[in-house]
Amino acid sequence: MPDTNGRSPGGAKPRSVALIGPQGAGKSALFDALLAAAGAPPRRGGPRGMGTELRLAHASHNGDTWSLLDCPGSVEFAHDAACAAAVCDLAVVVTEPAPGRAAVLGPVFRMLEERGTPTIVFVNKIDQLNGRVRDTLAAMQAQTNRKLVLRQVPIREGEQVTGYVDVVSERAYRYRRGAASERIALPDGIRAREAEARAELLEALADHDDALLEKVLEDLVPEPGEIYRPLHTAELSGAVVSVLLGAAEHNNGIQRLWKALRHDVPAPEETAARRGIAPEGAPLAQVFRTVHAGHAGRLSWARVWRGPVKDGAQLDGHRVGGIHRFPNGEAQKVPEAQAGEIVALGRMEGVTTGTTLGQAEALDFPKPAEPIHSLAVVVEDRKDEVRLSGALQRLAEEDPSLTVVLDPESGQTVLHGQGELHLRAALDRLAAASGVKLRTVRPQVPYRETIRHAVTQHGRLKRQTGGHGQFADVKIRIEPRGRGEGFAFAEEVVGGAVPRRFIPAVGEAAEEATKKGPLGHPVVDVAVTLLDGGFHSVDSSDMAFATATRMAMQEGLAKAEPVLLEPVHAVTVTVPAEYTPNAQRLLTGRRGQILGYAAKEGWEGWDCVEALVPAAELQDLVIELRSQTQGLGSYTHRFDHLAEARHR
Ligand SMILES: Nc1nc2c(ncn2[C@@H]2O[C@H](COP(=O)(O)OP(=O)(O)OP(=O)(O)O)[C@@H](O)[C@H]2O)c(=O)[nH]1
Ligand SMILES: [Mg+2]
User: Using a 6 Å cutoff on CB, does residue 178 contact ligand 1?
Assistant: First the structure.
C-alpha cells in the first residue's frame, strides 16, 4: 500500500535529515538515539563534548534509507548548520523545553526560513519540562513566522512527563526508559487538552487545504490520512512546523520521531523541485563540506541531486575516487549513490566546498558570515613555515567560514573566523593533521602616525670618497595635513638652487621616508615642500639628493611632535532588544562612541547599535558580547577613520 507520499514501503527513495539547534540541546544525543533505534550498536565512550564538527551517518529504518547530519550548535559553527540546511530534505530543530531558552531559536528559525528548508521541532529533554508545554510552544512561536503545531500532548504524573497522546492518531503511549513506548488507554482528564491541540492542528492545516477545511467546518472527524497529506504539503511549503516531544537521553519519543520523519520528510524530487533543480538529466551533486580524513584522504561530502553518481565516473572532469557511506556510523564503500543521498566522495582533487558537480550553473550555497574574530599563527619551529602555509590552505578549503591572510604590513599570518572556539577547533585539526607545533598571538593593529607641527629642516650630504664625492643640500618644510588627505610633495625652489632634474628624487625619498616614522609606524597626512638647497656640478646625483632628503625627513619628523593614530571602526552590533543596554555598556567600556540604536529591519525584537570603536578594542569583543547575550549578539565592522590615540 502506498504511504501518504505516494511511495511503497521499502521502495522509498533515500532522504536526508539535519539535526540543527542551539548548543547543548541534545542533537548529538538524538542522533545517536535515532541510529540506535535503527539498529546501530549502542554508542561507546564518555559524555559528549560540545559539537565542533558536522557528523554524517546513514540508517535504514522501516525499509527507508536515511542520511542523517548532526550539526554543531554553537553560533560559531552556524555555517555548518546552514550548509546542512541547504542540502537536506528536512531539518529537525532540537530544542529544550524551558521557555527562557526559546530566544536562541530565533537565528536558527530565521536561517531555515530564508533557505526554505522544511522543518519539524523536537522538544528534547522533556524529562526536564517544568511548566506547561503550551508555554514552551508560545515562546518558540514568537521566534518564527511559520505556524507551530503541537503533534503530541504530554501525559503527566505529578510533575513528571510519563508519556504522550499523539494528536493525529489520538493514541496514548507511556514512555519506557531505553525502550519503545507502550500503548496505553487514553488517560482520564487528557481529552480536553488533546482535543484543543487537535483543533489547533486542524485549523492550521485547513488554512492550506480546502478538503480539510470543509470537514472542519462541517464538524466531521477527518481520517489520519486526510491530516497527514495536508500536513506534508504545509510542511514542505514552510507554512507549518510540527512540534514533537521526547527525551533523547532516555530514548523517549524516538520511534515517534522516526515515524514522523517517514511521513513528513519530502521526497528528494520534492526538495529538488523546491530548489529549482530539474528531475531529469545528467548526475548532479553539490559538495557542502570537505574533510581530510587521515588514511581515507580528502573527502567531499556531497548531496546527490540527480543520480546515480558512480564510483570512477567523471563529474565535471573530476574523477570520483570512492563513494563512502556511514551506515550506523561505520564507513563503507559503495559503487554508486542515488538522488537524495548524502555521501562522501573520495579524492575529488581541486573541488572546494560549495562546488556544484554536473552542471555549469552553480547551485545556491550559503555564504559564510563575515569573520568576527582573528588570531595570528606563529610556528614554534621556523622550519615548519612551509608546511604551515599548506596546512592553512587546506583548512580554509575545508571551511569557507575561515580565511587565512598574510598581512603584508605586520608579516603575520592571520586566521579570521567566527569566534575563539571556531578558530581553536580549526587549529587543533591542523595540528593533528600536519604535526606542526604552533601558538597564537594577537593580530597587530595597523597603527599609523602623523605630526602635530610644521617644521623646516635642513639636510646635507657631503662625502668625499676617492675620486669624486657626493654632495646634496636640501631645505624642506614638513607640515601636517588634514586627516585622510594623505601625502603631498611640492617645491618652491627659486633660481635653480636645486636643478629640476633632481627634484623628483627628493619627492620620492620624502615619501619613502614616511613608510616608517619616529614611532615605528607609517606616517600619514603630511605635506613636504622643497624650499631651497644647493648642489655641486660634478658630485650631485639623484642618490645624493635622496640621501639628504631622508636625513632631513628623519630629523624633521621627530621634531614635529609625532603622534600615534589608531584605526577606528564603524561597528554595528545586532542584539535582541533586551540586551541593547548591555551592548551599549560594552561598547562604551571599550572606548566606543555610541552613535545611536534602532530596531533592526525585518528582525522583530532585535536592535542595531551603531558605534565608533578603536580597532584595538575589537580584538575579542565578540567573546564578551556573546557571553552577555546568550550567544545571540553579533556585529559587523569596517574601517572608518584614524584618530589620535590617547590611551596607549
Ligand atoms: N535530561 C536530559 N538530558 C539530555 C537529554 N538529551 C541530551 N541531554 C544532555 O544534554 C547535554 C547536551 O547533549 P548533546 O547531545 O551533546 O547536545 P548537542 O545539541 O549535540 O550540543 P552541541 O553539539 O554542542 O551543539 C548532554 O549532557 C546530554 O547528556 C534528554 O533527553 N534529557
Ligand atoms: Mg552535538
Answer: no
Report d(CA 25, CA 247) in Å as an integer: 10
All residues at 6 or more sequence positions from 504 whose CB lies less than 8 Å from its CB, including other chains: 542
Q: pLDDT, tens digit, for every residue of 52-77?
A: 899 999 999 999 999 999 999 999 99
Indicate if ligand 1 lies below 6 Å from the C-beta of 73: yes
Ligand 2 center to residue 69 CA distance, Å? Answer: 10
Pocket flag, ligand 1, residue 14 (CB < 6 Å): no
Q: CB-based burial of residue 284 (10 Å sphere; 0-12 exposed, 13-18 middle, 19+ buried)? A: buried
- pLDDT tens-digit readout, 330-340: 889 999 999 99
Tell the residue nearest (CA) to atom 23 of ligand 1.
51
3-state DSSP call for residue 411? coil
pLDDT digits (tens, 9 = 90+) for 537-584: 999 999 999 999 999 999 999 999 999 999 999 999 999 999 999 999
pTM: 0.89
Give residues whose Cβ lies within 5 Å of ion ligand 2.
Answer: 27-28, 51
CATH of the domain at 412: 3.30.70.870
Q: How many domains does the chain have?
A: 5
- Residue of minimum CA distance from atom 14 in ligand 1: 26
Query: Exposed/middle/buried for 643, CB within 10 Å: 0-12, 13-18, 19+?
Result: middle
CATH number at residue 21: 3.40.50.300
Name the closest ligand to CA 81.
Answer: 1
Q: Are the beta carbons of 19 and 92 closer than 8 angstroms? A: yes
Give the structural domain span for 386: 373-439
Residue in 23, 48, 123, 130 to alter for ligand 1 test, most ligand atoms within 8 A of Cβ: 48
Quick one: which ligand is closest to 124's CA? 1
Please check whether residues 542 and 492 belong to one and the same domain: yes
Whether residue 299 is found in the same domain as residue 204: no
* Residues 458 and 544 occupy one common structural domain: yes
- Is residue 419 domain-shared with residue 480, that is, in the same domain? no
pLDDT at 178: 75
